[in-house]
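Sat 14:20. Reprocessing the chain from the morning session after the first attempt stalled halfway. Input below, unchanged.
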Amino acid sequence: MDASVFVYERIDPTEASLKWLAEQGVTVEAGHSMFDHPPRRYGSEEFLKRANEHAAVMGSSGQRFTRETLDQLPNLLFIAKCGIGVDNIDLAAATERGIQVTNTPIESDVEAVCEHAIGMMLGLLKQFRYWSPEFMRAGGWRGGLAWAELLMGRTVGTIGMGRIGRGIARRLGPWNVRAIAYDPRIGEAVKGVQMVDLATLLAESDIVSVNAVATPDNRHLIDAKAIAQMKDGAILVNTARGALVNLDDLAGALRDGKLAGAGLDVYEIEPPDPRHPLFTLPNVITTPHTAAWTKETLADIGWSAARSVAQMVNGQRPEHLVNTDVLDQLKR
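Finished this time. Tokens:
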């Protein structure tokens, strides 16, 4: 088997994981670094040319693996996705073609995103955007222009109760919040969390945290209709996937005062259009998909992906195989 990988996005800031992978006998073609600014991405023609020279590819969400793309990669056997979400990959098409897909559901990634989401909640409640250095440079001081709010006693609704959703709920327990959640994939109760339907969650939550897996069926789960069901003055935080929230509808609700604030780390198109009205609003905290952007987390992600590549090219079942049905396909 061709033991080679095209790393179209280098994510490990230390590069140690790629060095280790080469020491395992895997030929590594190192592509763009994710730390370039502005970010660099391959055009379709160049990506296909480079990827077709290898059995495996490794990278984050900067490349979409649609059915049409996979049709043009007849030599591809393995996709090592850096990160938890695999919504940039057509899993059904990959499975049909016998392509193994892995992700990196590492603990430090979960920890980082949980902390980031809660940080956004606190930043919005405590008016960090309003009480800013710019405000004080202009001679501003406290007064009745804006008011901070307590997290204690609030109802926090989590959409999606995977490891991140559960992690957020667990961390908020000592803050004396009421935790409710919606996840159609989970039937059993989660300790300390009241499972409700989506309509109830939207109607009762002071803060809605979006932590669901993005699928074609839940695109724009949070749109104008959903926002209309939310409490007046509620806060929305999305650290999951941008496709889950209609950005235009959200901007309108923030501008009109229906929602008090929003914290966003993810966008349907990344990078987003910097001219979008959302970025002009004072009640928004935005970050450029950096919830897990710590050196420790990114190095851990790089190591997890590198180990998956080594396992796959050596004929072993990778630890974090996403499309497990592919194994049946490979036996035929």
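The chain is about 35% helix and 15% strand.
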